[in-house]
Amino acid sequence: MSHTVVIGIGNAMRGDDAAGVEVVARLRERVPPDVEVVACDEEPSRLIEAWEGADSVVLVDTVTSGAPPGTLHRFDAGKEPIPARALRSSTHAIGLAETIELARALGRLPQRVVVHGIEGASFEAGAPLTPDVEAAVSRLVDTIEEETCTSAL
Amino acid sequence: MAKRRTIVTDYLARVEGEGAMTVKLDGDTVEHVELRIFEPPRFFEAFLRGRSFMEAPDITARICGICPVAYQTSAVNALESLCGVEVPEPIRMLRRLLYCGEWIESHALHVYMLHAPDFLGYESAIELAQVAPAAVERGLALKRIGNDVMTLVGGREIHPINVRVGGFYRTPSKRELRTLVEPLERAREAALETVRWTAGMEFPERTVECDLVALQWPDEYAIERGRVVSSAGLDLAPAEYEEHFEELHVERSNALQSQLRGGGTYLTGPLARYTLGHDRLSAGAREAAKEAGLGPECRDPFRSIVVRSVELVHACEESLRIIEDYEEPDAPFVPVEPVAGTGYGVSEAPRGLLYHRYRIDADGTILEAKIVPPTSQNQLAIEDDLRDVVARNTKLDDEALRRLCEQTIRNYDPCISCATHFLDLQIER
What we know:
The structure holds 2 protein chains of 2 kinds.
Chain A: E1 4-9, H1 19-27, E2 35-40, H2 44-50, E3 56-64, E4 72-76, H3 96-105, E5 112-119, H4 131-152
Parallel strand pairs in A: 1-2, 1-3, 3-5
Antiparallel strand pairs in A: 4-5
Helix pairs in contact in A: 1-4, 2-3
Chain B: E1 4-9, E2 19-26, E3 29-37, H1 41-48, H2 56-60, H3 68-82, H4 89-120, H5 125-131, H6 133-154, E4 163-164, E5 167-168, H7 174-178, H8 181-199, E6 211-216, E7 227-230, E8 235-236, H9 241-244, E9 245-249, E10 256-260, E11 266-267, H10 270-277, H11 283-291, H12 304-325, E12 341-349, E13 352-360, E14 366-372, H13 374-392, H14 398-410, E15 423-424
Parallel strand pairs in B: 6-11
Antiparallel strand pairs in B: 1-2, 2-3, 4-5, 6-7, 7-8, 9-10, 12-13, 13-14
């Protein structure tokens, strides 16, 4: 049977940056037991370890593209990079896009890689999710639940 | 008239966190150099007020995803010293082991993923992985073992939850710790290989003249405790730190910059630790440093990559020694009763000295917290270095100069803010 990992990336202390972590927290109760659900920070070796051995990985992170807050973006990174210029590199040391390419170069990327980006509005320290992002989290949880339940059959 | 140039990097790649750099040139004259940083400690200082002193290690661990143990350790050091508690030796050694795990993880990340591509002429670790996958895998494996140490001792690798004022919530058995021996022996070999690898890189000749500041302890390479010493002869208890160092508010950012009281730049971190304490490194680390051509002092920021590699060897050997000597403590922690007053704590985060001060009342409520992270202590030294590097290289075109500036900043492994992880996204169609 195929093995799927859903990874939520973010920092719970930084407003909408918590969206990815919130998605996996809500999914945990709702996906089949063979779907692994983990929260992770955006640190390359931890991410690569988190999807080690999986055939399919679903990644959820907050993005800022100038789109309206709560907009959901979706990228298929299994075959080709997330558009390099489009996903401008993370403010962090090695961002998600770079980690995916690092794993690809090392032959450590699962076959299927889907990246969901939730457009964030506020990253204020200690703030809760903003309403548009909160609504987007709910929509994305439904989408991922549906997709993982279907693919697990 | 000479041509004016401005070089701006809004987001510094391969630096932990958020940061931006601006260099202004008028012909061959450097008009302005600045590093802008966003610093989470300011928020956490406010957030800590009104909380129980027992919560300080858990709260401050969240300041940084790369060096949470540093924040926890400086916090417990400050609070335990205030409350008159000295933790038993096995507890202290476990904390030192946990801290070694963090050094291994942080140094492996910086050396392999962030810093090495600069010296080898690659844009990123991705390019490096394409041409030298074995080296990148070695870095990832080293990091992984650092993570494993942190998970076993700290309870969790990111924001460890097991450290408490007075000790730990749970201490590992001897048997549990022994599972780390074989991985750490592999890590030591990988660390020695890292020293040989980095020592073979090409380095521009460079020396920084500012004061070096690090912790020192008589018979240990100071990590989780120590007195604050400097190359100019300071030798201070943690409580005396603010008598000699001060923070200045910088208009252009919400950050504070440290300086020697009354003026003066200083540097903390690997170069300072090595220069002030290399004779206390483990035998293998000392030998590796010698083979790598490091003398009794190293003031070359470019060679910090070699010093970090030597410290990787030390952290592995020290971890093995601690595990070998470990005796399970009678209890995982000693009870700590709050004492009204002010406590001071320091430790050596991977990137430099981390200072905490807490004022608490008799109930243990935190009235005031002060956190001085290594990067704000090093900021003036980084800007001085940048100014000098730019002045010597004004003939370079903008792109080459930008790269040199970014490399200069990365030499200091600045933890500009480890507190956010969103992607900055621009979609072009």
